[in-house]
């Protein structure tokens, strides 16, 4: 991974000054915070907390490139997450951050690409339309489609981006460790629970369920624009070009825990993608993976006090929009910690 400009790495990725707000108020050490989970949500929260001056340590059963975040096509696109108004606000914040990274920090693996969400029936703009600059109707939809929406969106190559987040965290003095746990650790006054699907067992929350997503990676054949078709809720079709490959999907199988790719599903995914994007007809398949999206009827982002007076901030249940909402949610986590913890 190419090294980025140190002055860029040291700046807040939100576009605001990353002025520590907990260091040195009383001349002591900053509060210790444990972040549970090393997917994109956990790492984004950890980076924001470290930027704010907290002593941050990430504990995770799965390291970043082993998580569902590593499987994601990671197109900025609010998908299978609620409630709509909060999703839109979190996503808008993340959009701005990703645009800043694309412009100033190429080593982060973020690119801005034009694409289209195609629809089979006419309808109003999506609920998150206000989060997107220059959203416009598709003027000439392909056969079989009634219309859609065209816009520029960040595409995040998670194979590059997740290691970049880890590097950013360690540059700020944070740590990442593999840790097997049956319950929230009690070795710090603050725990941030970004356990994703594992929060189902960790917090006893049966509303968290997997939405299985199977994808393929195919060789890059010169494609630069992404496309999404959600007309079948169980079998969304999406084609997302990255720098060195193209992510093709997919599935949205709620309650399905199977982590191994199914050959018949791979064939169906490729057939649908090739109908939508004929340029993929001869693209060589490079690989296939499965990720279990952590869905919840509403994203849980709230603080609670435990019986031993520790603060637990829950941030999980992001469905198919973890990358899309990551920075907006991370900023809110920092606000909750600030509101409850004095330095």
Automatic annotation (TrEMBL):
<dbReference type="Pfam" id="PF01266">
    <property type="entry name" value="DAO"/>
</dbReference>
<dbReference type="InterPro" id="IPR023209">
    <property type="entry name" value="DAO"/>
</dbReference>
<dbReference type="InterPro" id="IPR006076">
    <property type="entry name" value="FAD-dep_OxRdtase"/>
</dbReference>
<dbReference type="GO" id="GO:0003884">
    <property type="term" value="F:D-amino-acid oxidase activity"/>
</dbReference>
<dbReference type="GO" id="GO:0019478">
    <property type="term" value="P:D-amino acid catabolic process"/>
</dbReference>
<feature type="binding site">
    <location>
        <position position="238"/>
    </location>
    <ligand>
        <name>D-dopa</name>
    </ligand>
</feature>
<keyword id="KW-0560">Oxidoreductase</keyword>
<feature type="binding site">
    <location>
        <position position="293"/>
    </location>
    <ligand>
        <name>D-dopa</name>
    </ligand>
</feature>
<keyword id="KW-0274">FAD</keyword>
<protein>
    <recommendedName>
        <fullName>D-amino-acid oxidase</fullName>
        <ecNumber>1.4.3.3</ecNumber>
    </recommendedName>
</protein>
<comment type="similarity">
    <text>Belongs to the DAMOX/DASOX family.</text>
</comment>
<feature type="domain" description="FAD dependent oxidoreductase">
    <location>
        <begin position="32"/>
        <end position="335"/>
    </location>
</feature>
<feature type="binding site">
    <location>
        <begin position="68"/>
        <end position="69"/>
    </location>
    <ligand>
        <name>FAD</name>
    </ligand>
</feature>
<feature type="binding site">
    <location>
        <begin position="319"/>
        <end position="324"/>
    </location>
    <ligand>
        <name>FAD</name>
    </ligand>
</feature>
<keyword id="KW-0285">Flavoprotein</keyword>
<feature type="region of interest" description="Disordered">
    <location>
        <begin position="1"/>
        <end position="25"/>
    </location>
</feature>
<dbReference type="GO" id="GO:0005737">
    <property type="term" value="C:cytoplasm"/>
</dbReference>
<feature type="compositionally biased region" description="Polar residues">
    <location>
        <begin position="1"/>
        <end position="15"/>
    </location>
</feature>
<dbReference type="GO" id="GO:0071949">
    <property type="term" value="F:FAD binding"/>
</dbReference>
<feature type="binding site">
    <location>
        <position position="320"/>
    </location>
    <ligand>
        <name>D-dopa</name>
    </ligand>
</feature>
<feature type="binding site">
    <location>
        <begin position="73"/>
        <end position="75"/>
    </location>
    <ligand>
        <name>FAD</name>
    </ligand>
</feature>
């Amino acid at each position: 991974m190419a090294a980025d400009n140190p002055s860029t790495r040291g700046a807040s990725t939100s576009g605001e000054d990353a002025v520590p707000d907990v260091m040195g108020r009383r001349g002591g050490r900053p509060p210790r915070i444990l972040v549970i989970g090393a997917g994109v949500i956990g790492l984004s929260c950890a980076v924001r907390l470290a930027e704010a001056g907290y002593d941050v340590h990430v504990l995770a059963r799965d390291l970043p490139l082993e998580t569902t975040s590593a499987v994601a096509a990671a197109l900025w696109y609010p998908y299978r997450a609620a409630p709509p108004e909060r999703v839109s606000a979190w996503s808008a914040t993340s959009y701005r951050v990703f645009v800043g990274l694309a412009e100033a920090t190429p080593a982060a693996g973020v690119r801005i690409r034009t694409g289209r969400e195609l629809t089979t029936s006419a309808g109003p703009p999506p609920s998150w339309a206000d989060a997107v600059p220059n959203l416009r109707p598709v003027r000439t939809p392909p056969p079989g489609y009634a219309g859609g929406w065209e816009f520029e969106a960040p595409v995040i190559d998670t194979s590059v981006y997740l290691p970049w987040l880890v590097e950013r965290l360690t540059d700020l003095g944070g740590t990442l460790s593999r840790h097997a746990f049956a319950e929230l650790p009690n070795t710090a006054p603050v725990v941030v629970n970004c356990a994703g699907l594992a929060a189902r067992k960790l917090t006893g929350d049966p509303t968290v369920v997997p939405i299985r997503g199977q994808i393929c990676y195919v060789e890059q054949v010169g494609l630069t624009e992404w496309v999404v078709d959600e007309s079948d809720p169980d079998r969304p079709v999406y084609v997302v070009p990255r720098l060195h490959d193209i992510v093709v999907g997919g599935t949205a199988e709620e309650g399905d825990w199977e982590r191994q790719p199914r050959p018949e599903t791979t064939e169906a995914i490729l057939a649908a993608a090739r109908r939508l994007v004929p340029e993929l007809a001869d693209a060589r398949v490079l690989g296939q993976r499965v990720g279990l999206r952590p869905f919840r009827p509403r994203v849980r982002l709230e603080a609670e006090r435990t019986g031993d007076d520790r603060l637990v901030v829950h941030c999980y249940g992001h469905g198919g929009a973890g990358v899309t909402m990551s920075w907006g949610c991370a900023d809110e986590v920092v606000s909750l910690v600030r509101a409850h913890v004095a330095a």
